[in-house]
Design brief:
Layout: E1 2-6, H1 11-18, E2 28-35, H2 47-75, E3 83-89, H3 92-103, E4 107-111, H4 117-122, H5 126-133, E5 137-141, E6 150-154, H6 158-168, E7 178-185, H7 196-223, E8 227-234, H8 237-248, E9 252-256, H9 262-268, H10 271-278, E10 283-286
Parallel strand pairs: 1-2, 1-4, 2-3, 4-5, 6-7, 6-9, 7-8, 9-10
Antiparallel strand pairs: 5-10
Amino acid sequence: MKLLVAVDGSDNSYEAVRSLRYLSRAEELHILHVLDVPTPAYPMMMPEVTQELYATVERNMREDGTRLLERIVSLLPMGIGPVTKHLIVGSPADHIVKLAEQLKVDLILLGTRGLGPLKERLVGSVAHRVLTYAPGAKLILHGPLKSLSRILLPVQGTYDAEHALRFLEKTPFRDPPTITLFTALPHTRPPWPVDAASAKEMEVHALRHAQDSLNDTAAKLATLGYRTRVAATLSTPVEGILQEAGALNPDLILMGSRGRQGVTRLVLGSVSHALLHHGRYPLMIFN
């Protein structure tokens, strides 16, 4: 796979680099640092002075950025694959998305320092915008990825299952983890009147059908070398995923993103964005 690691010098961006030890050897590994150079905000300053001040700040930031990239390369695990460094001036989120599109990367790794939920929904952090707009899969870390032996994989129907299989066929992980396939079904009642016993029987039937579908996917994953277990419950998606994660304590939540698009998605969010805001578990999202 082609990998892109975006670093900003924060502790969590170093954790994104360290997480490479759990991934398969890269066909190409790109390390990106974007310089968000501030523009001097002194309205009475002469344009020539403003330009000179900006150039000085940019030059100093470039020197720091070059040292950061060299330090990051020195931390890469042995045998990770051929490495290319990128140092770019501009908006971090925009350039991460742009470079990912140009290089056709399969996975973006990103550490996030995060914003408050309200501010992030209205304005958008780098991680939020990359998750929304960038192609390929994204691994977003709020902290260290200490191991990678247990993965929680929520799926909702055959569409999610097929996309998960296609992603896992690429063998993204160095050692195949145990994958828990999970689905959350909503508490629903039919539009016609039924008694409590009949409603309960319908829910049991729906859960059994969901588990049968998960078992079919688990059998396909087994042929790819993954160990699996399945679980289904009646709940809202986010609540169900977090409850299962609390019981399982996974190293990573892996899931597809097929939520809302554009401004609507930024404001209202989706399951993957809700889990990003929750911030407790490392999150890998595939398209």
